[in-house]
């Protein structure tokens, strides 16, 4: 069995988010802070990454004032409470084939998530891609959720949001065993 460790290259990795509501959707990006992945015989077997919640950007709103207002709302306690929780975490708990299960922690609340991942290994560079669908209400984000508020009409925000993740990682040199 050949096991390799990789450190995520945050500058070459990205997370795109999409949140949907009755009247449309919003999208943006969020940056990674750090992370690592392990491969055994070419398959991901372990990993962890840290997300910088203070880096949330909104891409679909071009008016600077409206964008800043929305960004402030996402940073508030209605959504991600980024002053109190500047980081979110994901840690792999198991892998079967290309199906990954792990614990996602947002706002200090951990919940299991599962998704499919595609990997590509090119020399010492690993690329892993996948989409995590997250029910925000499991992390205490209840703002305009139909599960908690009635008669929202066209102001309803759907509970699920997507994180489309592209991780690029470089192999870590492991010292030879003596």
Automatic annotation (TrEMBL):
Official protein name in the record: Polyisoprenoid-binding protein YceI
Residue stretches in coiled coil: none
InterPro entries linked to this entry: Lipid/polyisoprenoid-bd_YceI, TTHA0802/YceI-like_sf
SMART domains, alphabetized: YceI
Record-annotated Lipid/polyisoprenoid-binding YceI-like domain positions: 5-170
Pfam families: YceI (PF04264)
Signal peptide: none
